[in-house]
Amino acid sequence: MVSRFILTLGVAALVSACAGPSVQAPAPEPAASKEPEVREQTQSQGGASQSLLTEARQARLDGAFDKAEGLLLRAQRIDPRNGVVYLEMARLYATTGATEEARRIAERGLLYCTGSTCEELREVL
């Protein structure tokens, strides 16, 4: 009799545990709410790469070619679809006499350029 009571009590506990409050995963946020965050990241990346481009141009003009290359590679990692980065890299390689590398970079930059940047990249070719 006692074992029957314990068995009944165990089944009741199991049933009540299964019927407890259900926990639901939070509903996913709509895609529209994430857009401003993406735009902010893009703008900050553009600002960072622009700063690196300015510094790299000056380094190239000063003859600090290794420094310019390092800055341009950082800019490329930050903003890999910025045609101006490729233009500056092509100019750097052309200045240092690495004409094949300059052409290769200019061709790649044509994938991402707009306006006058495209014309300047074509001049490197």
Automatic annotation (TrEMBL):
Top-level taxon of origin: Bacteria
Compositional bias ranges of the Polar residues kind: 41-53
Key word Signal present: yes
Signal peptide extent: 1-27
Keywords linked to the UniProt accession: Signal
UniProt region (Disordered), positions on chain: 21-53
This protein's name: Tetratricopeptide repeat protein
